[in-house]
Structures are given as C-alpha cells and as structure tokens.
From TrEMBL, chain A:
Belongs to the binding-protein-dependent transport system permease family. Residues 61-251 form the ABC transmembrane type-1 domain. This is Putative spermidine/putrescine transport system permease protein. InterPro entries: MetI-like, MetI-like_sf. It comes from the Bacteria. It is a multi-pass membrane protein. One of its GO terms (biological process) is transmembrane transport. Keywords: Cell inner membrane, Cell membrane, Membrane, Transmembrane, Transmembrane helix, Transport. It is found in: Cell inner membrane; Cell membrane. The chain crosses the membrane at residues 7-27, 67-87, 99-123, 129-156, 176-200, 235-253. PANTHER family: INNER MEMBRANE ABC TRANSPORTER PERMEASE PROTEIN YDCV.
UniProtKB/TrEMBL annotation, chain B:
It is found in: Cell membrane. This is Putative spermidine/putrescine transport system permease protein. It comes from Marinobacterium mangrovicola. Part of the ABC transporter complex CysAWTP (TC 3.A.1.6.1) involved in sulfate/thiosulfate import. Probably responsible for the translocation of the substrate across the membrane. The keyword Membrane applies. PANTHER family: SULFATE TRANSPORT SYSTEM PERMEASE PROTEIN, SULFATE TRANSPORT SYSTEM PERMEASE PROTEIN CYST.
Length: 278, 282
C-alpha cells in the first residue's frame, strides 16, 4: 500500500493517543522511584518509597492476593459445572437463569454493594470478615467465567464427544473431567484470567464492602491518594502495576495462542475484561 | 446398538444431575444477588409516601442535576471515545508496519486499570504538580490544572474507555468486506460516502455494542471521581454521599435502582439493535 499523507496523519493521531495512554503511567512509575518528585529525577533514584509502602500497606497486598485466588477457586468450582449445564440445557428456565446470572455485569458495582450491605450488613460476623468482599467479587466475576466457558462449549460439539465417551463406558465424572474440561480449557483459562484481573483491581464494590481491617490494594490506593505524598502514592501504584503485569501478559499470550490455533469451528471471546469495571 | 443405548441413558440421567451441578450457582445467585436486590428495591420505596424517593430524585435540583450531569458526561465520553477508536482502529486494522502489535498492546494495556488508578493518572496529567501545570508554568507562568473539574473526569473516563472500545473496533474492522468498498468506489462514490455508507455501516453493530458498554461504565464509574475528589457530583458519588454522610439509605437505594435501570436498559437496547451480543461479558 502506498504511504499517502492521510496514512501519516492517521499514524500521527494513533501515536498521539498512544502517548496519552502511556505518558501518565510512565510519570507515575518514575515518581515512585524518584527521591523527590518536585526536584525531578535529578534528585536521584530510590526504592525508599516502595519499601515504605510495603511496610505500611503489605497487608492489603496479601488480602488482595487471597481474595483473587479465593474468587478464582469459587468460580472454578461452581462456575464451570454451571456453564456446562447452561450450555447443555435447551429449556427456557436455563436461558432465564443465564440472563439473571450475567445481570451483575450490567449493574454498577456500587448498587450491588449497597444491596449486599442492606441485606447482610447487620450480620456483624460476616460484615467484618473478608468473606463479605469475597461474596461481592464472586457475584461480579462469575458471569465472566460462565460466559467464557459457555462460549467454548457452544462452539464444539460436546454432546457428540460425550456420547462417544459414554459408549466406551465412561461414567459421568469421567466424562466431565476427561472430556468436557480438557475441551473447554481455553475458555476456562480466559475466564480464570479475567476473574483474577477483575478481582485484583476491583474498587466499586470493595470500597463499600471493606472495613478498616479488610482493606484491599485498590482500597489502600484510594487511601494513599487522599493522604500520602505523591512519591508514596506513585510507588504504591507501581506495586499494583507490577502485580497486574503477569496477568496482562498472560491474557495477551492466551489471546495470541488461541488466535493462532483457532480451528474454524472454535470461536471464543477474546479474553478481555469488558465489564462495567473501574 | 450400543450408541443408541448410551444415548438413551444420557437423556435419562439428565435432570437430577444437571440440577445438582447448577445448584451452587443457583444458591449463590439467589442469596447474594437476587435477595439483596429485592431488599434494595423494597427499601427504595420506604418513606412518607409510596415512591416519594423516586419523585424526589427526579424533581429535586441536586439529584436531578447530578443525574443530568452524569448522563451528559457519559454521552460525550462515549461519542469522543468512539470517534478516537474508529480512527485508530481502522488505521491499525488496515495497515501493517513494524511495531504494530506493540502499539496495539500499549494502547490497550490500561484495560485492567481500576478507576482509582485512572484518577491518579489524571492527577499526574492535570493535577497541581502535573504535566499540564509544568507546561503552563513554562508558557505563561501559571499552573494549568484540569484534574479537579469535570474536564478531569472526562479525560479519565475517555482514558479507561479507549482500550475496551478500540479492541472491539479493531476486531470488527478486520472483518469488514473490502470488496464492498471497491464496488462503491467503482460506482464513483466519494471517499466520504464510502466512509459513511460502507465502513461506518459495517462497523455499526460493533460501535453500538462497545458504545453501550462505554456509556454504562461511565454512568456507574465511582473510583475515578473518588480519587479526584472533585466537587462534581456524578450519580455514583451522590449515592455514596447519601448513604454515608446523609445516612439516607432509602434515597441511596432509589438512586441506585435508577442508575442500574439506566445502565441495564442501554445495554439491553444495544443488544437488541446491534443483533450482536452487547452484553459486557461477551
């Protein structure tokens, strides 16, 4: 294709937008390792702020990890079987239930959190426990897991695979774990990555559901932004980005891998978190 | 023979076992989503008169202006994001050059950033010690700040909407039928007509779907406004203040129901209109 002026105009615009996405992140990262941000980078590089964040906020890191893994465990345990049932059943009830199941994605997290507090806020043991946040995260991420797996199941003829296995004498559990699960591994991986990414960054629900003793990383970030000096806020953001990075890389890798091996019949949604997040 | 036997057997086992597999999700959904939502709905009608909270939300100036401001902000964020994404998305889908996949990665990696972090990034750009303040000091000696006004929210919302919308537009643009454009060109259609009637029409389902998600996300976004601590009362902030400071739980519930209805309805309509699946999970 010939490189016309219009080509360079569009390239320039795209690069400009890219700079808009990138520059604030780079500024934040540098601020997090700069001795004194107001004097600039000439004041020297340091890991002092990162250490300080780790000493003040390390419990938020652990809780965030714990929550993300627990959310993932619940989603795998209950979401994958549910997806199988929903993909298999043709009844109107199954369709209705599927709609209800994905509803939390269409409703702002704040409203869901408010509903949870109104319903269960009075139960002190639950209200002050990290399990209260876990409930919120599961409600919010479960639709992504179920949809990712249902999409894969719809794209393969799993009934035939299953009948084949059954005719060879495989019992139900055997069929589920040896036929269904391996065949929708791609969807499970997408759903799992989405679950982890969403849970680690969840703020809308978590801010409402947390207590002073159950602060997650994004909650701690909001805290730091409001009360700490810029370098500490930046260092904290840096730690968050470092935590998110493996998930982002894995998501991209998973996307490429699945695009590359995409058999014509297998079309699954790109593993991107297109939810009503933030 | 064996095949048909097993087929019948498969049908026979169905109901009970399938229900058992679905049961945990049924319980979780009912107990922690449907029941709380029902309670929220009931509480939103509590008060002196039936439905008084909703009447108040739609007539009293501070609630109404919060609702209208949020709607206007979300609509403009959606339009600007769509425009940016169509230009970048078409360009990226149609041209091959070195470093393209890196460029796409850089444009879309903030997808997973939560709203609070984006609020902080806006402060980095337009806050009191931000980039634009430095620039202003250099150029006319005053600190240019925009982070704490509605412009800051606008910039933040566009920032977090671009990755989502762009990915959808690129995917849709790659599937466009180039022959349609060739045909239009051979019939003498102008570049503008081709863009409007062929390209935009082809992208329409994707634009509707991703635009609806962008709008719904902006309506419900809370973290960015929270981090920027602006005096602009977007609806989620109003709900939050009613709940915490005002302890007016019934009002907060009514506003939440209104907000949820708006976002759900927009996503639902987009799904109907685009024919494609506009639900955010797809």
């Amino acid at each position: 294709m010939k490189r016309t002026p219009s080509y360079y105009l569009q390239l320039g615009f795209t690069l400009l937008i890219c700079a808009f996405m990138l520059v604030p992140v780079l500024m934040s990262v540098t601020a997090g390792v700069t001795e004194n941000y107001f004097k600039g980078i000439s004041s020297g590089l340091t890991l002092r702020w990162v250490q300080e964040v780790l000493s003040i906020y390390s419990d938020t890191l652990w809780l965030t990890l714990k929550l993300a893994l627990a959310t993932l465990a619940v989603n795998l345990l209950v979401g994958v079987p549910a997806a199988y049932v929903l993909a298999r059943s043709k009844s109107r009830w199954a369709r209705l239930f599927e709609e209800i199941l994905v509803l939390p994605v269409a409703i702002p997290g704040l409203a869901i959190a408010l509903a949870l507090i109104i319903a269960y806020g009075g139960v002190q043991d639950l209200r002050t426990s990290w399990l209260f946040i876990l409930i919120g995260h599961v409600i919010y991420t479960l639709p992504f897991m179920v949809r990712a797996v249902v999409a894969v199941l719809h794209s393969i003829d799993f009934r035939q695979l299953e009948e084949g296995a059954s005719s060879l004498g495989a019992g139900f559990l055997r069929r589920f774990f040896d036929v269904i699960v391996p065949n929708c591994r791609g969807g499970i991986v997408s759903g799992a990555l989405m679950t982890l990414t969403l849970s680690v960054g969840e703020f809308n629900l978590t801010w409402m559901l947390h207590t002073p003793l159950t602060k997650t990383l994004p909650v701690g970030l909001a805290d730091a932004y409001a009360s700490m000096r810029l370098e500490i806020s930046s260092a904290y953001t840096l730690i968050f980005l470092v935590m998110l990075l493996p998930l982002l890389l894995a998501t991209q890798w998973n996307g490429h891998r699945r695009k590359a091996q995409a058999r014509p019949a297998v079309q699954t949604p790109a593993p991107v978190a297109k939810g009503v997040t933030s | 023979m064996k095949y048909t036997l097993s087929g019948r057997w498969l049908r026979g086992e169905q109901s009970a076992r399938l229900l058992l597999l679905l049961l945990p999700v049924l319980i979780i959904s009912a107990a922690f989503f449907l029941l709380p939502l029902a309670r929220l709905l009931v509480i939103s009608f509590e008060g002196d008169q039936w439905g008084a909270n909703y009447w108040q939300a739609l007539t009293e100036a501070r609630y109404l202006s919060s609702l209208i401001d949020t709607l206007l902000l979300s609509v403009s964020v959606t339009l600007v994001t769509l425009a940016i994404s169509v230009v970048c998305g078409l360009f990226l889908a149609r041209n091959e050059f070195a470093g393209k996949s890196l460029l796409v990665s850089l444009l879309t990696f903030p997808l997973a950033f939560p709203g609070v972090v984006i609020g902080f990034l806006v402060i980095m750009l337009g806050g009191r010690q931000g980039l634009s303040a430095e620039l202003g000091l250099m150029l006319d000696g005053t600190r240019w700040t925009f982070a704490y006004s509605i412009a800051g929210l606008f910039v933040g919302y566009v920032y977090f909407s671009i990755p989502r919308v762009l990915l959808t537009v690129i995917a849709a643009a790659e599937k466009l039928d180039y022959q349609l454009e060739e045909a239009a060109r051979s019939f003498g259609a102008s570049r503008y007509r081709i863009f409007r009637d062929v390209i935009l029409t082809g992208l329409k389902p994707a634009l509707l779907a991703s635009g609806a998600i962008c709008f719904a996300t902006s309506m419900g976004a809370f973290g960015t406004a929270f981090a920027l601590a602006t005096d602009i009362n977007v609806l989620p902030m109003t709900i939050y203040t009613e709940f915490t400071l005002g302890a007016n739980i019934a009002m907060a519930a009514a506003l939440s129901i209104l907000l949820g209805l708006i976002t759900w309805l927009v996503l639902f309509l987009a799904r109907m209109l685009s024919g494609a699946d506009a639900s955010p999970a797809a």
